[in-house]
Every structure is written in structure tokens, then in C-alpha cells.
Amino acid sequence: MSDEKYINAAQQRALRTLLMLAEHDLDGLAPGEIARHLKTLPSNTTRDLANLRLAGLAESLGNGRWRISPRLAELAIVLHRNLENARKRLEDTRRRYARD
Fold this sequence. Notes:
Elements: H1 9-23, H2 31-38, H3 42-54, E1 58-60, E2 66-68, H4 70-97
């Protein structure tokens, strides 16, 4: 089964927008900069940013520029914590089965 039938151009563009914002997290990016880089219409970028904001993944800086929201950092912290907990569980299991 090919994944091609599941690809949606608008969703892919929004994801590329999110990745761009992540690379410019301090100063953010203006929608026009994003649109030019992604070779899309400014209206598409405005829509993508609004959807990312509604999802809690992007925020306006109030000066016409946008950046990723703290929510992504929070998700990264949760992932790191979960991986650390899994590592500890594996280590505990390894110790139980290890011969001394």
C-alpha cells in the first residue's frame, strides 16, 4: 500500500511552516517570508498560521512575526521524561535478569 494517497498538500505545507518557525524561534518569521520560502500564496500562510495557533503550536509575537509556541518545548520535555522512565525500567529489568 502506498502512502501517496494519504498526502494532503495543505497539511504538508502547514507542517513545513511549523518546521520553519522552529528554525527561527527567537525572532520569528513574517507570514510573507514564510510564503516566499514555501512558494505559496500569502493567504495560504495566513490560514496555516491560524491553524497552528488554534492547535497551540504557533504564536504571534504581536509585531507581525510568528514563532513556535512553548507547547512544542513542553512536548519535548514530556517525551524526554518518558524515554528516561523507559530507560530506567529497562535497566531495572536487566538487573533482575543479570547474573552476578
